[in-house]
Every structure is written in C-alpha cells, then in structure tokens.
Amino acid sequence: MRKLLIVFLAICLSSVSSAWAMLSMELTQGVFGAVPIAIVPFAIQGQTPPQDVAAIISNDLQNSGRFKVWTKNQLTQFPASVSEVSFDYFKTVGVDNAVIGKIEQVDGYYTVKVELLDVAKGKNHAALPEIVLFEQKFNANPAELRALAHHISDQIYQTITGVRGVFSTRLAYVVVRQAARGAPHYFLEVSDQDGYNPRPLLNSSDPIMSPAWSPNGKQIAYVSFENKKSAIYIEEVASGQRNRVSGFPGINGAPAWSPDGKKLAVVLSKSGSPNIYILDLASHHLTQLTNDYYINTEPTWSPLNNSIAFTSNRSGSPQIYQINLQTRAVTRLTYDGKYNARASFTADGNHLIMLNQDGGLYNVGFLDLDAGVFRILTHFNADSESPSIAPNGTMALFGTLYQGKSVLGMVSVDGHIQIRLPALDGEVQDPAWSPFLS
User: Fold this and answer.
1) Is the pLDDT reported for residue 195 higher than 60?
2) The pTM is what?
C-alpha cells in the first residue's frame, strides 16, 4: 500500500493498486448502547417498486453504528399508519422508535409516505401528537428511490441524534484494474456513500491520484500522469467535461479547494523544491505561499478561509503546519509522534484529521486544536492512509489493507465506530468524501 512518506518525498510519483468494483459496506464495530429502532417494511399499493426503500433505510442506520435496527426478520407486526400501531408490542420488542410508511404507484411515479414515531411515549388507543417525530410525503420516479431512501435516512439520523446525516453524500476514489497480462488500468470513480452506484469518471492507462471535491460537490480536482507528466485537472461530475488547470514543469500535485470554490491550493516544484501555491481559477493567477527549500505539500484549507494547513519537513520529520493567509506567519500544529501528514479540517475549523505514525503503524489521528488534545482513532493490524473527513465531522474515510488487499475504511472521530468497504472483486484506495450535496 502506498505510504504517505513516499508522497512526502516524491509527492505525485507513488503507485496506486486497485480494481474497479462496487464497494460493500461492512460494520465491524458500533456504539455500545446504540439507539434501538424498528424499520417496518413499507406497505405497497400497486406495482412493487424497483428499490426496497425500507431495506435501504435499515442498512443506512445499521451501518452508521449509532443504531440497533429491528427489521422484518425480527418483527411480527407491520403497521403502515399510526392507527395500526400497537405501542405495547413495540415496547415489548424493546425499541424506542419506529419507522412506518406506505408506497403507492401513481402514473409511473411512486408516492412515499414515511413517519418516524417515538413509540416509547405511545399508548394504545390514545392519539398523542408528540409521538410523531416527523411525517412526510415524497414523489419520486423509479430511478430516484434509492436517493430518496438515503434522504429519509438523513432525516431520521438528524431527528434522533441532532447531527446531520451523510447518507446522501458520495465518495470519490482511485481504482486500478490489473489485467492478467499487460499494464494496469486506472479509474477515477465516484459512488454513493454506501458504495452503490459506482461510476468511473476517468479511465486511463496512466496513474491518477489525489481526488478532491469542490465545495458544491459538482467538480473533482485530481492529479493525472498522462504523457508521463503530472498535471492537475478539474472534471465536472455530471458531464465528465474536464480542463487542465496546472501543468508546470516538475511536480503538480495535491489540489485543495478554497471554501468558496474559487481557488485551488496546489503543490508545485517549478522553482525547485515543492512549495504551496494558490491558483485563482478565474484569472489563472498564481500566488506562492511557501518559498523555501523544505518539502511543503498536502495543503488543506481552513473552513474560515483565513489559513491553510500543510505538511512540511522543516522540523526534520513530516509534521503539520499552518500558514496565515494575511500575515504569511507559519506555526506548527502537531507534536504527537514522529510523523504527521495528510491533514484535513472538520467543518467547524477546530479539529484536524491526519495520518500519524510513532514507531509503529500509520494510523488516523484526531487533533482538537483548541484543547491541544490528540488521539489515535484506528488500531488495525495494517497501515492507514489518505484520511478524509465526512462533511458532518463525525467520521473519517481512509485507505488500509484487509486480507492482503487495499480497501477503504471508516472510523468515527470518537473511535467507537469502525466500518470496512472492500471492493467486491478488487482493490480501492485514495478516497475523498464529498460535501453535503443538497
């Protein structure tokens, strides 16, 4: 598996090894005392929809690690409206909440009605308005049902936990198809957050790396080695249209979007050592931020738009530093471990996810910038790489090894939830988590 130390020394020349395939999400560790919830199969009127909306919601919530889900296999009653609910039954089952719904086909569309109930407060034969936490109705064509199910999961998650869900977000990652004979083939791919609906954006015989989502989720910047030279491209996710925005001699690497989407922080070696530059995407004006003989790489923009964190060896080993965009003052942020790299900010700007190593394996670390408290999140028997933070700040996505193959993993920022996303028939790595898309 590609080590970040190689990226640190050679930036864009590291290898990628994977194969294009759908990811398969597997919860390996969840929260002790997860919220018990029943997802009742939705009543169907008319033609059976092509997607099982209730099953998708069940998988979303179960794989979040925050919920203990009862589905049709654990239930014996299947109400579709509040009037049909036996609250005594659900209390006996041991759940606090229940999701019920109906799906009706109308003129080629599906009308989906869903209700989230606080069954712990309910009493049989008593109409208590406070038991209905939300009730909504949606219209969707057959192709929109999976996305709608993720949207409903987001609403359930936020209503119960108070945190916005990320089930409707997407993942970008690099895969490689290795033929039995011949050179490997590289793909830049995007999928739903749960690994479904994978779609390659770029198919190339040359390496691809460092995908980065734009703040609005409509574009991805990445590095491609077409013609055996590194260059930075921006591609429209919907149309596949792309433009080369940086192709200077030497290294063109590690693109990072500004919060307003108008600029990219990039790593260039056109003047010698790798340094951080800001590229204005409208004017193509280039501003140099660091100007020294150290290795400066992996920039990440603060959500406040007033500073950029980056990796540098100016203290002798890779560590995370921050440069103020107004004063150009540089301060060191990390001191735990002999190696810290590949940082990214949480949405509040007060925390960093990074790659940490201190005499052993490479792990995903989490730093509270206000309190100065650092902790390790991953404790696997293999190195981690390329951490990327979820837009709600609760989970980190990263690459690792499992059974000898490159896979993706997720870990909660409290370290309690762990998820594995191996490809069903290959390998995958170098991930990036999208922003909220709606």
Assistant:
1) yes
2) 0.91
